[in-house]
Amino acid sequence: MRILVVEDDHIISDGLRAGLAMSGATVDCVATCADADAALAASRFGAVVLDLMLPDGSGLDVLRSLRGRGDRTPVLLLTARDAVADRIAGLDGGADDYLSKPFDLDELSARIRAVVRRASGRAAASLEHGGIRLDPGTLTVTVDGATVTVSRREFMVLAALMERPSVLRSKSELEDRLYGWQEEIESNAVEVHIHNLRAKIGKHAIETVRGLGYRMRAVA
Amino acid sequence: MKSLRVRLFAILLLATGLIWLSAMAWIYLGSRREVERVLDNRLQEAARMVSSLVGAVGGPDSDGTPRTFQAPMSYERQLSCQIWSIDGRMVARSSGAPERRLSDAPAGFSEREVDGETWRVFTVEEPEKGVRVMVGDRLGLRERLVTDLIMGLLAPALLIVPLLGLLIWVSLGRGLRPLRLMARNLAARDADDMSPIDAALAPTEVRPLAAALNALFLKVEAARRHERDVTAFAAHELRTPLTGLKTQAQVALAATDPDVTRAALRQIMAAVDRTAHLVRQLLDAARLDAATEARPLTDVELGALVTETVRTMRTPPGIRTVIDPELRGFTIRGDPDSLRLAVRNLHENAVQHMETGTIEWGRRPEGGGVFVRDEGPGIPDEELPHVTKRFFRGRHKSATGSGLGLAIAELASRRSGLSLQLRNRSDRPGLEAEIFRG
């Protein structure tokens, strides 16, 4: 999953980039309202972590314009103040959740997963399809009960496909979810990940629709 | 004297006593004069009366001894009368009168010592009758008369003084009751109760005190509000580096890649440095706030102060610091500790907002004072009035700033009775800060 972190403190955003990457996310960081608006207009993110106090304005403005465009990307607010009024304004402004600084990195990851899950309309924390079970909390994949070891990127590809198993995901869409802006992408990276995944979870689990993309094979 | 009541009592009693004493002295002197006048008149009258009788008395007895006669009135204890012939023989004397001649004066008043007593004598000369009539009384008696009079006045006064004292003491107690009431109300207050005293209820004399107390309450309340605000801001400002620390620490703990761990640890070091810096600035600000009494101002040599202060600070390799040699030997009146703090924070602010370039310290062209110019982005004009507020962080905020540096610089300048002025450079982007007396 790709997450946008809007935070002006360099040490925090750097920690979030590293920390969220460990829980299987790709993180892009911006430090100002203007950059956040631009990033949200240009790319789709799985979730946004939004600090309220930004150098050129309030995170609430970013949230408002995001919701104003009809964008329903889950947003989690970070507040440094304990003011209840801030949280109410944030939640009423369209935020899905909030955390007070200093927060726990694991809790932040769990809350991001929760808001993403809620946004996709699922109740269960794990994704299941045709004997394949994927747990985003622990980054584990089991096939018919047996644990399969996958890399972080492979997990992200599989998660993207299993979120809505019948929907086709194009190669560029998958690349978008796998890699942040600064990351170098090998032209056949997605193919390599799909190839490795097939070797681990079963040759026919993922279906290739030539020229369009990939999806999970329908369960008979 | 600690007690207002005792003090007032002493003053009132002393004043009353003094007035009383002067009144006594006046009465004494006045009475003596009056007594003297009355008694002199009596002497005169008595002498004339006797002399008018002399014709009937006639010459001395045939045997030559002076006759004694009963004075017409019962004067014997006070007045004595002698009748002498012009040629110097005593013709007659009243009973109890001394035998020695009372006066040598031919006529009128005179005084003379006879038998150890001073006599005041009035002499009437009757040349046609050939006699001198002398009537006198003893001055000692006169004195006793006046003393008795004064004693008669003094005795009741001495009895009254303790009564008067008691009355003054009780009245003072009643008069000072509003003060006591106010004190009791104040003493019964909660430490947090900063509501003003109702000055209208206080007596006129105490009203300035009540007003001063109310003003003090306002000041204390403002100081406490300020303290609360600063504490809240400080807590907020400390949360950011703490959040960074915690996040990076969790990354370092969870990471399996040693490169990630090392990077996280480096960030932790940076966050600790920043937190330490913030804590130092909070302490500096608190210390400046706490220094309520004015520090003694001395002549501070600015060249040495700036050079010393800048030398102890870490400046990144891309930044050059130039200190105008004109600053050497140039002094400004101020508190050296506060000035050092101001210089350090201004320099730090400049360093934080520059990647590369020159920081220039120099002497203000007009009047006394020192300036520092940097080559950073400057401060947007609309933010200039706010940047010296605590924890204000503008658009060009630096990654490591705390929002306290310029506030400390301003506060520290004020502690030396100096002003801090910030403006954007006219020749190029950058901030120019000046410390001067004005």
From TrEMBL, chain A:
Positions the record marks as coiled coil are: none
Domain OmpR/PhoB-type: where?
124-218
Gene3D superfamilies on file: 3.40.50.2300, 6.10.250.690, Winged helix-like DNA-binding domain superfamily/Winged helix DNA-binding domain
Compartments (UniProt record): Cytoplasm
Please provide the record's keywords in A-Z order.
Cytoplasm, DNA-binding, Phosphoprotein, Transcription, Transcription regulation, Two-component regulatory system
Per UniProt, what is one Pfam family of this protein? Answer: Trans_reg_C
The question of whether Nucleotide-binding is a record keyword is answered with: no
The 4-aspartylphosphate modification is found at 51
Q: What is the lineage of its organism?
A: Bacteria, Pseudomonadati, Pseudomonadota, Alphaproteobacteria, Hyphomicrobiales
Name the chain's protein: DNA-binding response OmpR family regulator
GO terms of biological process kind:
regulation of DNA-templated transcription
SMART domains xrefs: REC, Trans_reg_C
GO cellular component terms?
Answer: cytosol; protein-DNA complex
Q: Which domain of life is it from?
A: Bacteria
Q: Which residues form the Response regulatory domain?
A: 2-116
Signal peptide coordinates: none
What terms describe the molecular function in GO for this protein? phosphorelay response regulator activity; transcription cis-regulatory region binding
Species source reads: Methylobacterium brachiatum
- DNA-binding region(s) from the entry: 124-218
Key word Phosphoprotein present: yes
Q: Which PROSITE patterns match?
A: OMPR_PHOB (PS51755), RESPONSE_REGULATORY (PS50110)
For this protein, the record's PANTHER family field holds: REGULATOR OF RPOS, TRANSCRIPTIONAL REGULATORY PROTEIN QSEB
UniProtKB/TrEMBL annotation, chain B:
Q: Which domain of life is it from?
A: Bacteria
Predominant location: membrane
> Which Gene Ontology CC terms are recorded?
plasma membrane
TM segment ranges = 149-172
Quickly give the catalysed reaction. ATP + protein L-histidine = ADP + protein N-phospho-L-histidine
Database matches in Gene3D superfamilies: 1.10.287.130, Histidine kinase-like ATPase, C-terminal domain (3.30.565.10)
> What is this protein identified as?
histidine kinase
**Upper taxonomic lineage:** Bacteria, Pseudomonadati, Pseudomonadota, Alphaproteobacteria, Hyphomicrobiales
